[in-house]
Amino acid sequence: MSDGKYDRSGDGILEKYHKRTENRKRKILIIDDEKISCSVLRRILEDRYDILTAGNGQEALEIMNEQKYEISLILLDLMMPVMDGYEFLDYIMKDAQFSVIPVIVTTSRDQDEDEIRCLEHGAVDFVSKPYHPEVVRKRVDRIIHLRETAAILNVVEHDRLTGLYSKESFYLKAEQLLEKNPEQSYDMIVADVNGFKVINERLGMKLGDKVLCYMADRYRKVLGENGICTRLHGDVFAMMVVHGVKDMERELLWKWNEPVEGIPLRTIDIKYGIYENVNHEVPPFVMCDRAMLALSRIKKLYGRHISRYDDSLRAHLVREQQILDTMEEALEEHQFEVYYQPKYNMEDENVSGAEALVRWFHPQFGFMSPGEFIPLFEKNGFITKLDFYIWEETCKNLKKWKTEGRRPIPVSVNISQMDFAVLDLAEKITSLVDAYGIDRELLHLEITETVYTQDREHITQTVNQLRQNGFKIEMDDFGTGYSSLNVLSELSIDVLKLDMKFIQKHADNRRSLLGFVISLSKWLNLETIAEGVETKEQVEQLKSFGCDYVQGYYYAKPMPKEAFERCLEKDVYKVRTEKKNLADASEQLDMEEKKDTVLIVEDNEMNREILRNMVSPYYHVKEAGNGQEAYDYLMMNSTEISVILLDMLMPVMDGFTFMKKKNQNKEFSEIPVIITSESDENSELKTLQMGADRFVGKPYHQELLLLSIQATLRKRKKTTNVEENL
Ligand code: C2E
Ligand code: CA
Ligand code: CA
């Protein structure tokens, strides 16, 4: 332990210190205007001490300025001309360096009042005239001994390397400061040198220490009277500083440019975590923790140097903790669910597979996306348990579909880095799949490219084993791990999966990059699947490059098992604008439902036109530019409208308000509503909760839209029939 706290109990250090200094002759300054008085004291003390004398306060200060570090004690006469003893005491007590020198007052009048007064002014003791030599000596000896003991205690209260407060005394001082100044706002700042280990390793411990001392000096100087500083440990400093001192923060966090022993400090990367306006109720070590938490968020972010603690960060951390606290229970209670995102064959645009993606329906937080909890589970290892659960759920479904006699469809599951640490991973997956009696080829395994770059030998071995056992391997997120061509050709994989998001990053040459990657994978005899496909343009590109499969919001989002089954049955989503299918749909529509009128509520002219073009061949169309217009129209013509297509974001009256008003009006509350809006899980859920019947997100899909209208109308007719029959 380098911290002083533990030295204080055993007196070892003190003893050593006193031994070391025993032989040294200490200096005493006698201040007295009476020469005789001075020489009496000198005679009493000079065999043990070096004596300095001053005839008045002014002279004394001159001597002290020169020798302040050497003077162990001052003997001060109270009654002096020019500057009397009290004034002198007041003066030196205000000075940080002078005030540490103990003062014994000499007084000729043996009066209690004087004694008390001089103690109040900062003297530590007094001796009265006429002097009793033994008493003077004893008192001087005792005071010097005491003060030096206190000083040594002071030394161990400090960090030996930097001279800053030790952690414990820092916390103590911080508490005192907060107590003394309850109205004052303070900030807690922690500083951490990024990659300090490297500095130590490359330049040696000694230089490393120098850098730390330099930092300490800098902080101490900048803080001055406005704050206190400690080295928490290693290369981590903490400071408590008065909030809002002009330029203080900038000075503290300044990029440093004075080289220390030739090390340009500019190259030293210091990260700061700041907990501003600390809550006085919180103990200082918790303040440091909070500042550290803020710091930890930017620890690995290049170019970020300052991170502030705020309540949202706290809420975030609390939520993280709650996630970790509830995960085991969630697994037992089947709160995790597998969603399936269809994969489409580019040739015929039929559903040709799916990816299993986990979702968590948390009793407290509701729907949670894996982006929030998977990284946490990857950190704490719970991912291996969860993954196994997801694999097993997927197997169960594959088996169910098999027994239901559905067309066999491969489903891919994700395997994370951590899973490879599991003993006999290949064996475990194989026996799982076998236990459900599923064709091994139907379970595809998605492994991200970056995993391969970690522990290549072990990973390759496991993957080879799995492949030999008959599983298909997809390399996920290809393009993020910088695999070289060499590596790629050596790995045993079946499918390259590229994420449009990553390829889009290089917008300039994305066409060529995309084309290159696809031809590369063809050359390696691999199949390609593109995921994150969101636009028609992307689909066209991928098609032109000969990509085999696609997956993305353009076609379908991840969906619950039941929805996916429906998707398989109908292939509703297949072939976006293929004429043939549309003709089929229109044939049906022609027969059944041409008389209905659709009210399109949409402020955007272009969207309205698109919708009109899609719908008008089969239905009468009315249009409104916002909720208010639509509402006014319904007030007059409610019986005319069969279904409403509603955008949510509109001026004057938005979709939500419209829904609310519409639902309150008996005349037309029953008219079904299909939301045609920007789709995300929140708004989708919200509108459905508000009573919307369906959600058809942008970009619009004619067939899907028509089928939705058709289904809605059919459902409505059924219910009206039932009502009529009653
Ligand atoms: P991933 O394996 O790359 O999965 C693809 C992610 O992209 C999914 O996000 C999917 O919903 C999303 N996505 C699909 N199409 C589109 C699109 O057109 N546009 C956009 N912007 N995104 C699209 P999700 O489901 O939130 O999963 C995120 C990540 O979480 C996954 O990335 C995967 O790494 C991980 N993950 C999900 N489920 C599991 C699991 O069961 N086990 C493990 N180990 N990881 C999982
Ligand atoms: Ca994946
Ligand atoms: Ca992916």
Rg for CA atoms? 40 Å
How are strands sequenced across the largest beta sheet? 11-12-14-15-16-17-18-19
SS-based structural class?
Answer: alpha/beta
User: Roughly how much helix do the residues carry, as a percent range?
Assistant: 40-55%
Number of strands: 24
Number of H/I helices: 29
The major beta sheet can be summarized as: 8 strands, mixed, barrel
Q: What does this molecule look like?
A:
- The protein has an 8-stranded mixed beta barrel with strand order 11-12-14-15-16-17-18-19, surrounded by 4 helices. A 5-stranded parallel sheet has the order 2-1-3-4-5, with helices on both faces.
- Helix 27 (655-664) links the parallel strand 22 and strand 23 (673-675).
- Residues 1-21, 572-580 and 722-726 have low confidence and may be disordered.
- Helices cover 48% and strands 19% of the residues.
- By secondary structure, it is an alpha/beta fold.
- 31% of the residues are buried.
- It contains 29 helices and 24 strands.
- Ligand C2E binds next to strand 12, helix 14, helix 15 and strand 16.
